[in-house]
Design brief:
With 326 residues, the protein is an all-alpha fold. It is 80% helix and 0% strand. One of its GO terms (cellular component) is endoplasmic reticulum.
Length: 326
Amino acid sequence: MATLEASQAVQLDQHFEINFQSETHRLYKQKLEEVSKLQDSCSNAIARQRKKLKDTVDEMNAIDGIQESIKGRPNVFFEMESFLPKKNGLYLSLVLGNVNVTLLNKHSKFAYKDEYEKFKLVLTVLLLFFSFTCRFVFSYRALDALFNFLLVWYYCTLTIRESILISNGSRIKGWWVFHHYVFCFLSGVMLTWPEGILYQMFRNQFLTYCLYQSFVQFLQYYYQSGCLYRLRALGESHNMDLTVEGFQSWMWRGLTFLLPFLFFGHFWQLYNGLTLFRMAQLPECKEWQVFMCGCSYLVLFMGNFSTTLGVVYHKYIHNQDKSKSL
């Protein structure tokens, strides 16, 4: 009897053990299936995130392209507007009235710009020889007056032609246009300055400055025209960009050697202004032209110096940011 009970107990234990193992195996398979599902879920989530990341990169590239396109839109609109009739500005309206000065094809625009550049070159050379003659060959007030009249006519003509070119798409920094008005005014005042002791005191300094200025303008025209030609060939310059008497950002490559000549000319303008202000304090000074010419030279110095320095500083900061990004 005892043996039978022991046998039944062993069988019962074995039955419980088998049931426990079956339950454990079932739980193991259940957990394994859950792990497999979690693995599949994680794999699918990673695949989805990778696809979204790829789509995000594509979207960012598309956004960059759109931003570049937006940046280029003002230039496109500017180009389109240059072929449409435009209302004349105040200066052109005063000089020419309501005459339409918009040239309707690229050939006409470029031909007018080219003629403007040739006009500047011819007059610059003429003024160079004229100032040399007045300074070192002949010393006649009538010849000086003719020289100043030529300066007035030259700068008046430049302002009119530049206004027409701006209406046809040329991009000229505002100061380089305005400083021609100041030069025109200065030359007009010099033309009315009567013969006298003070005029003779300033005459040689003025003519020497004009000689140097014409020389620098000739250098600028010669090198700027070559630089513009190369930039246009590379597609980095607008067809209607002009040579100027100052320094602009597009001149940074290859024309920085002109900066010492320009800054020397700017400080010569300051020297002329200070000389005239000292002359205006002399007891024998009765002419109003002395003070007005001094003010004009001071305005020219401040405008030219600050504009040129601003271009140099802006380019320096741009190069610093570019080197940091690399």
